[in-house]
Amino acid sequence: MTALRCRESIPDRPRLRRLSGPSLATPSLTIRSLTIRSLTIRSLTIRSLTIRSLTVLLFASLLMASTPGCVADPGHQPPPGTLNADQFRVIQPVLERGCANPTCHGNAERPWRIYARHMHRADAAATWSDAPLTDAELTANATWTMPFIKHADPDGSELVRKPLHPSAGGSPHVGGAQYRDRDDPDFAALRAWVADCVELVR
Hints:
- This protein is mainly α.
- The chain has seven helices and no strands.
- The longest helix is centred in the first third of the chain and has 45 residues, at about 20-65.
- About 20% of the residues are buried.
């Protein structure tokens, strides 16, 4: 009887309850769902940027296709001769500043192209070189430039009209207007040189 009483007097140990259900699963599921949502937003953002980039490229291509580039006008009669290196050297600094960028006319793929310091050079190893242009490079520049000069109407030459803003009498140009008006010093120098070179090669 004593043993039974002792056993009956010992209280039951509390049993640990196994936790289950959403209390433990919810944080894991929440993190996972947030990760999936973040990846979804990121993929949508990348897709949006890709579509936007393609749209910009398509628009630029259409603009370039619809805007006349620097191609010699078959109706223009260029001067009968050409210039030597010294005669072209006069205008070289003006053309370097306004036209010789590799995305414009400092590029071998352009119908009108020019060699320039720090830009396109006859010797590929000299590209980006600060060395002065050789006489051969200046003569090549003159040869490429003459078809864009109108013998009978120097002011109507593409070399004069293309870089000038249309509001000042210029013509459309893929590269945009280099000179806002006829009072720009570089434009005035270019216009005067074109008129002089027509006289020089008559």
